[in-house]
Write a structure and sequence with these properties.
Radius of gyration: 17 Å
Strand content: 5-15%
Helix content: 40-55%
Oligomer: single chain
Order of helices and strands: EHEHHHHHEEHEEHEHHHEHH
């Protein structure tokens, strides 16, 4: 079984949209999907077979004030209105509905990583935790700490999956994968720096100390996992698909030219995937 991981990364996730659009164009559906944050949204459209859907979200809808604005933050405590993106726009009567029936009937398992805000531990949702029009697990996975207030499901509050398991390759192997395509939104081997994490961790510590600890240590965890998947790539068990250059694009930077460039990089980088599948003797779903 060959799986795909999309690690997300806010608007840099458009790189992953390029990768999945390439796969859909080649009619390649991998055996297992696991997504983190925006990566989980990319994989929703991938399993639904909706080519270019993610591209439209990154290059059109994300530029709307309803999606991201300080007005949202002042009104709701969340800079990104996840209900607008994964609720209103994605509903059956929205501007660009997710084809829920196609996604749910896709034979590939789909796992969505979120972080329990109270414990700081990962929660692995599946597409069985979704229903038509109910994409709250995607919202939970995409809840950037401090920028957004935790997202609540069933009385439990969640934050971005990247806090607790930014490159969830161990989960994928535990679930039965023999090889993995790992889609990054940073150049391969570019080590994560704490940046604003430490300042945000101090704020988060007042309400969610365990998640604050995760945020404080996030760069170390990402870098450790990056080193591990690079070794797995050297061993032939992983293919890392990553941009060559992100031109300083940050998680929530809205620069249309940079976003389109990153999407094109995804289309180009994905061309390595068919040979990787051939190397592993993959004879999966190509229809």
């Amino acid at each position: 079984m060959i799986g795909i991981i999309d690690v997300g990364g806010g608007l840099r996730g458009i790189f992953g949209a390029g990768v999945t659009d390439f796969l859909m164009d080649r009619k390649i559906m991998l055996d297992y999907c696991i997504g983190v944050s925006a990566g989980s949204a990319n994989l929703c459209s991938y399993e639904a077979g909706q080519m270019f859907r993610n591209y439209d979200f990154y290059t059109d809808y994300c530029f709307r004030g309803e999606t991201m604005s300080w007005h949202n933050f002042a009104k709701t405590g969340s800079y990104v209105d996840l209900e607008y993106t994964y609720g209103e726009l994605s509903a059956d009567d929205g501007e660009y509905p997710l084809d829920y029936e196609a996604m749910s009937s896709c034979g590939s398992p789909f796992v969505i990583v979120a972080t329990n805000a109270e414990t700081g531990m990962p929660r692995y949702f599946t597409k069985e935790d979704m229903s038509n029009g109910d994409y709250r697990v995607i919202m939970a996975s995409s809840t950037v700490p401090v920028i957004n207030k935790p997202y609540e499901i069933g009385g439990v509050k969640y934050l971005d999956g990247g806090l607790s398991d930014p490159i969830p390759y161990k989960k994928a192997f535990e679930d039965g994968c023999d090889a993995l395509v790992v889609v990054l939104t940073r150049p391969k081997g570019e080590w994560r720096k704490p940046g604003k994490d430490e300042a945000f961790a101090r704020v988060l510590n007042f309400s969610y100390p365990e998640s604050a600890k995760r945020l404080w240590e996030r760069a170390d965890l990402y870098n450790t996992q990056m080193a591990e998947v690079m070794q797995l790539e050297a061993d032939g068990d992983v293919l890392i698909v990553a941009p060559e250059d992100i031109s300083g694009l940050k998680t929530l930077t809205r620069n249309i030219d940079q976003l389109k460039s990153l999407y094109r990089q995804g289309l180009v980088a994905a061309q390595a995937i068919p040979n990787f599948l051939k190397y592993h003797g993959w004879t999966g779903d190509q229809k």
